[in-house]
């Protein structure tokens, strides 16, 4: 019964993590440029159950449950929303916008719903959280009454799904994604990309994860009850 505890608790942990991922996707269904996170499950180690009456090759393999191996980002495009705003931009290809915080850290995003941000020395193009949007040369973009005075830069990666999520709809370049490379692509103005979350799929995944959580909880409960019966018989 100890093995049942291990398998059940491993399943509970995996499905709880899955529910967290799904909840985050659903919460961002209306977030511009948000990319769906997808779970990758895997089996834990199998142990050989020795059966003396058979050859070793016929021994049964007992699993130790499942685990959530990784969470991957689906970089497919979402639908577009035509806003006609002069601070809204959309990238048709696989590129990203580059933004910089006050500490000088550079991040990348698909969310092109920008705004004019007052720096104290004038207005620049920035994100809804106040991060500065960069052009293809890594410079900030002044904003006047006529709108942005330059186009946001479009940056590409050799392996965009390898970008590290930094929260707040931002990504960080790393060794897996490769360095950011400025391209000659120009974003389209007056359009923003919406989230690529498929709400119907997420609801199905939610039901599956809930059922899996319940079944693993039943395994743990049943194993506990059987263990208690064995202890009572040995008392």
Automatic annotation (TrEMBL):
A family per Pfam: LlgE_F_G_D1
Residue span(s) of domain Flagellar basal-body/hook protein C-terminal: 188-233
A single BP term in Gene Ontology: bacterial-type flagellum-dependent swarming motility
SUPFAM superfamilies: Flagellar hook protein flgE
Domain Flagellar hook protein FlgE/F/G-like D1: from-to ranges: 91-140
PROSITE patterns: FLAGELLA_BB_ROD
Residues covered by the Flagellar basal body rod protein N-terminal domain: 5-35
Domain of life: Bacteria
Keywords for this protein: Bacterial flagellum, Cell projection, Cilium, Flagellum
Main location: other
Location in or out of the cell: Bacterial flagellum basal body
InterPro entries: Flag_bb_rod_N, Flagellar_basal_body_rod_CS, Flagellar_FlgE/F/G, Flg_bb/hook_C_dom, FlgE/F/G-like, LlgE_F_G-like_D1
Listed GO CC annotations: bacterial-type flagellum basal body
Family statement: Belongs to the flagella basal body rod proteins family.
Name the record gives this protein: Flagellar hook-basal body protein
Originating species: [Clostridium] cellulosi
